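#struct-pred
JK: can someone run the complex with carboxymethyl coenzyme *A? inputs below
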Amino acid sequence: MTETTAKITLGDKSVESPILSGTVGPDVVDIRKFYGQTGAFTYDPGFTSTASCESKLTYIDGDEGVLLHRGYPIGELAEHSSFMEVAYLLLNGELPSADELTRFDNTITRHTMVHEQLATFYRGFRRDAHPMAILCGVVGALSAFYHDSTDINDPHQRMIASHRLIAKMPTIAAMAYKYSVGQPFVYPRNDLGYTHNFLRMTFGVPAEEYQVDPAVVRALDRIFILHADHEQNASTSTVRLAGSSGANPFACIAAGIACLWGPAHGGANEAALNMLREIGRPERIPEYIARAKDKDDPFRLMGFGHRVYKNYDPRATVMQKTVREVFAALQVNDPMFDVALQLEEMALNDDYFIEKKLFPNVDFYSGVILSAIGFPTTMFTVLFALARTVGWVAQWNEMISDPAQKIGRPRQLYTGPVQRSYVPVEKR
Ligand code: CMC
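RT: done, structure tokens with the ligand placed:
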């Protein structure tokens, strides 16, 4: 018989905590009453054993290398779906009918323009500002422009804010790039699909018609699908935590962007390509593998390892295939891809990486593709943020609608001084 409670004994006290089961995945021990019953907190820095919420959006089995959105495997979505369809799925729970998809697509398309005043906001940044710094600032500033969609208790306003964020992110991201290269901002065009529109706003110029190979549009759309959501990762948890206080959605997504920027998270794609360039030639790979294994060297193989995946990241599989498609379409051949392939092979056959179950993650190959399309490395994490906005808003909506939702307020293990009396400065 399956146990329905977990018995935890602390000294002479024994408490029974309910065990909750999801549809799939590990059970969780419900410790919400634990402090009240025992006077003790649980301790889990980095949340390695803690479920922070209930969610119906995304499921990961890290040991098997499985990633499902609303039950659908990421490989199938990447192969057959579109980013707009995945966005609809994550937001609404089911795949759309043809009619629903057209309506959703039209709604997003009609929200892609940003308030004209926002353009002047960009001019306050230095031209060499990192586009992630610009993205953080501009997305946070959206709450000052769209007052009519900041009431989080109104489901209609929440939906408008969600659509606005998904729709305006490509425009804002493209403007960050344009600003950094000193070219004029390109307005969105409603007759183009989401990803095609973004590419045109990024690389198009007023002087000529923008042409792009459909294979490139499809590849980037697929990259967006691969980044759309990833359950309770650091930036998503940041969005949820910020949102738990009742903060407006634009502020919450800006908080998520700030968290994503770190090199252990979304910043790894930029760091991974920089690393491949630094390695430069296959002959130098052993030196870098040795450094990654050296405890006294802080260097890590970027794009390798994952908190949850202890197997091949299923997104990396699709990425590797996409590199080949983009190279064929653009007729390019970046030697960094060969370095990446050989580095992967060598690491996967090395005892250190085998023992620690370190496999390539989504960021290992994405940089090679994005670079071939023409994005500078500083834009890589911006693209991640653009796509992850879908997951962030879906998770944020789910949290606000959850009756069990409370302000996030972790406790701590205090190891500072105990109470002591203030000593006036002349007596110290
Ligand atoms: N290269 C070398 N050693 C590694 C690496 C790596 N990339 N990743 C983990 N290790 C080692 C680490 O030194 C540790 O060894 P030990 O047990 O001897 O101290 C062990 O593996 C476990 O690592 P950890 O840091 O305790 O594991 P974590 O779950 O806290 O970290 C991670 C996960 C993704 C932050 C880490 O693997 C890492 O820093 N990878 C490189 C950065 C990267 O590619 N990040 C992208 C993640 S996927 C996209 C995203 O989430 O945004």
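RT: quick notes.
The chain has 18 helices and six strands.
The pocket of carboxymethyl coenzyme *A is lined by residues 233, 264-266, 268, 292, 300-307, 356, 358, 361-363 (CB under 6 Å).
JK: thanks, will look after standup
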